[in-house]
From TrEMBL:
<dbReference type="InterPro" id="IPR001107">
    <property type="entry name" value="Band_7"/>
</dbReference>
<dbReference type="InterPro" id="IPR001972">
    <property type="entry name" value="Stomatin_HflK_fam"/>
</dbReference>
<keyword id="KW-0472">Membrane</keyword>
<feature type="compositionally biased region" description="Low complexity">
    <location>
        <begin position="336"/>
        <end position="349"/>
    </location>
</feature>
<dbReference type="InterPro" id="IPR018080">
    <property type="entry name" value="Band_7/stomatin-like_CS"/>
</dbReference>
<feature type="domain" description="Band 7">
    <location>
        <begin position="23"/>
        <end position="181"/>
    </location>
</feature>
<dbReference type="InterPro" id="IPR036013">
    <property type="entry name" value="Band_7/SPFH_dom_sf"/>
</dbReference>
<dbReference type="InterPro" id="IPR050710">
    <property type="entry name" value="Band7/mec-2_domain"/>
</dbReference>
<protein>
    <submittedName>
        <fullName>SPFH domain-containing protein</fullName>
    </submittedName>
</protein>
<feature type="region of interest" description="Disordered">
    <location>
        <begin position="305"/>
        <end position="382"/>
    </location>
</feature>
<dbReference type="Pfam" id="PF01145">
    <property type="entry name" value="Band_7"/>
</dbReference>
<keyword id="KW-0812">Transmembrane</keyword>
<keyword id="KW-1133">Transmembrane helix</keyword>
<comment type="similarity">
    <text>Belongs to the band 7/mec-2 family.</text>
</comment>
């Protein structure tokens, strides 16, 4: 019986010691502060770590978190200056700097911060219209932080940052804003399209202007070149005709023409007489020799043309036979090629004319053979 009593007594003593140690030793976590009261009155603030208090006399009443805390408040309706109700939810970043003031200066500092945030937000947003409210987040954040930091300073709390999570206008205002944004984008698109068309028209006009200028310059240069080519061709043609006349005139002086030469020239003109469109048939008489004799006898009375000549006289010096312009071998070759091509084309187009010319050449050959019985001609002097 005595042993059982002793055992119970030891158990009670052990339990008392454990409770005494529990009331005496206090462990405060890191970044925490313990507020100790003795008989209901503030005594001290326990730092982080192992602390000893008077059991059953001192009591750790509050454990204050010294870390920066984040509190998100639910959306609050706020009326703007243009009488539109918007819903704004905020986030507050704060930190307890004075555990004693946060414990004894205010009962619930989180609720106090929430109410102060709501009233300050309504005061700031009430002086802005909807457009300014949506675009002035930084201004609203700065205003809220300044007011909250000043009001919570005596509570031992420092407000580090205030953020607006969202500003939600009414659905009708959202629809109007979307329409306005769509209209603004369409307006910018139309303006950009018009500017693009204007730039395109300007570039097109400038291109047309440059093209017209270049075409005009090209036409002017081509006309100048054609005029110069016509002038040079006319000069060359006139010089060629002059050279031909000089050659013919020299040949006449060298050959001392008589009635036979005149008859020969007449026979050479006969194919040209037959070239007319109305001359479908041209007959050469078989008695061509008698006709030539009669032609020669009828022409001998022409003044200035003797019937017979004694011989060639001294050549007449006609000066240089070269044209004034420098001779161009390539131009002469090209002209000869063109003349040959034209003659070939005319022969192919008028085969009857070619046959007539061949018959005329044969007749002229017979006439020359018949006139060979006349007096012989002396060769021209060299």
């Amino acid at each position: 019986m005595t042993g059982a009593v002793l055992l119970v007594l030891f158990a009670l003593i052990f339990l008392f010691v454990v409770v005494l140690l529990a009331k005496t030793v206090r462990i405060i976590p890191q970044a925490r502060a313990g507020i100790v009261e003795r008989f209901g009155k503030y005594k001290e603030t326990l730092p982080a770590g192992l602390n000893v208090v008077v059991p059953f006399v001192d009591r750790v009443r509050y454990l204050i978190d010294l870390r920066e805390q984040v509190v998100s408040f639910p959306p609050q309706p706020v009326i703007t200056e243009d009488n539109l109700v918007v819903s704004i939810d905020t986030v507050i970043y704060f930190q307890v700097t004075d555990p004693i003031a946060a414990t004894y200066e205010i009962a619930n500092y989180i609720q106090a911060i929430e109410q102060l945030t709501m009233t300050t937000l309504r005061n700031i947003v009430g002086g802005m219209d909807l457009e300014e409210t949506l675009t002035s987040r930084d201004q609203i954040n700065s205003g809220l932080r300044g007011v909250l930091d000043e009001a919570t300073g005596k509570w031992g709390i420092r407000v580090n940052r205030v953020e607006l999570k969202g500003i939600d206008p009414p659905p009708s205002i959202k629809d109007s804003m979307e329409k306005q944004m769509r209209a603004d984008r369409e307006k910018r698109a139309v303006i950009l399209t018009a500017e693009g068309q204007r730039q395109a028209a300007i570039l097109t006009a400038e291109g047309s202007k440059q093209a017209s200028i270049l075409n005009a310059e090209g036409d002017r240069e081509s006309q100048i070149l054609r005029a110069q080519a016509d002038r040079e061709s006319q000069i060359l043609r006139a010089q060629g005709e002059g050279q031909a006349i000089q050659t013919v005139f020299q040949a006449i002086h060298d050959g001392r023409p008589d009635q036979s030469l005149l008859a020969y020239q007449y026979l050479q003109m006969m194919p040209k007489i037959a070239e007319g469109d109305a001359n479908k048939v041209w007959v050469i008489p078989s008695e061509i020799t008698k006709a030539l004799e009669g032609l020669g006898s009828s022409i001998h009375e022409v003044a200035g043309i003797p019937k017979q000549v004694d011989g060639p006289r001294t050549r007449v010096d006609m000066g240089p036979t070269e044209p004034a312009l420098p001779a161009d071998r390539e131009l002469s070759d090209t002209h000869a090629s063109v003349q040959e091509a034209i003659a070939a084309a005319e022969s192919a187009a008028n085969p009857g004319r070619a046959s007539r010319e061949e018959r005329l050449d044969e007749a002229l050959g017979d006439a020359s053979a018949g006139g060979a019985d006349g007096p012989p001609q002396e060769p021209p002097a060299q």
